[in-house]
Each structure stands twice: as C-alpha cells, then as structure tokens.
Amino acid sequence: MTHLFTSVVTLVAMSGAVLADDLIGNWYTAPNKDGDTGIVQISQCGSALCGALVGALDSAGMSVELEPEDVGQQIIWDTLPTDQPGEYRGMIYSPDRDRDYRSLLQLSGNTLSVSGCVFGGAICREGEQWRRAN
After folding, report:
1. Which domain holds residue 21?
2. Per the domain annotation, does 66 fall within a domain?
3. Strand partners, 39
4. Which of 19, 28, 67, 97 qualifies as a FRET site for 74, CA 20 to 30 Å off?
5. What is the pLDDT of residues 61-111, one digit of tens each?
6. Is there a contact between 28 and 131 (Cβ–Cβ < 8 Å)?
7. Would 7 be classed as within a structural domain?
8. Cross-strand pairs, 74
9. Per residue in 30-41, pLDDT tens?
C-alpha cells in the first residue's frame, strides 16, 4: 500500500511539472501604448515558473534595443499551475504601471490570457493577450 501511495504522489507531482512546461519558452506581450512588444522568456525557477524580459520589438516587428537596466527584468515569478487545465497563478510586474499584481494566466494553444489584481482584487487589469514566440 505504501508503494502505491508513493507512486500516486510521484505521478501527481510530475503531472504538475508537465503542465508547467506548457508555458516554458518565449512569449510576445501585448503591444504597449507606443506599439512596442516585449519578449518574455518563461522558465522553471525552483518549483515555480518565472519570466524575464529578454527582448522587444517595435510596431513594425523590428528588434528594439532594451535599456541595460531592463534586460532580464523579472516580469513573472512564483507562478504555479492550478487544478484547472491551462490555468496558472502567481505574480506579474507591469512595467508601464510600475506595479506588481497577483496574476492569473490562462493558456489556450499558443495564446496566453494575462490578468492581474492588487488590493485584494479591488483593482484589476484584464484581457491582455500574449502569443507564443517559439
């Protein structure tokens, strides 16, 4: 019985890691007010996922040089899959507002719906769509 319990626990733990792998890679953020799009690289950070700014494109799709202090800026952290398929919760930083939010990420194919709230849900940003870059 102990062996069966250990096997089930291992399988559940591994399934969470497999689900998290769906987000790993590069993502184009929604364009900002100037039409620029960030490139966020999501990777495994310990038991959670995190994402850092690794590049940017202008409205014409041409590479934009980032300011040195923006390269590697943490955008997503402490992000874990929930019990809902394709759903992740954690923290996200919005550079245009210079604010951290509790995030809800919902993956559907190569599209990631990104939303976040502060003050216990009193102020929320909804509906930003990111798309897979790779």
Report:
1. 2-32+42-50+74-132
2. no
3. 28, 55
4. 19
5. 999 998 888 999 999 999 999 999 999 999 999 888 888 999 999 999 999
6. yes
7. yes
8. 52
9. 998 889 999 999
pTM over 0.85: no
- The length of the chain in residues reads 134
Number of structural domains (the chain) is: 1
In a domain, 61, yes or no: no
123 burial (CB, 10 Å; 0-12 / 13-18 / 19+) is: exposed
Tokens of 72: 């590697």
Q: Is residue 94 part of a domain?
A: yes
Of the candidates 10, 28, 41, the one whose C-alpha atom is nearest the C-alpha of residue 114 is 28
Distance between CA atoms of 9 and 13, rounded to whole angstroms? 6
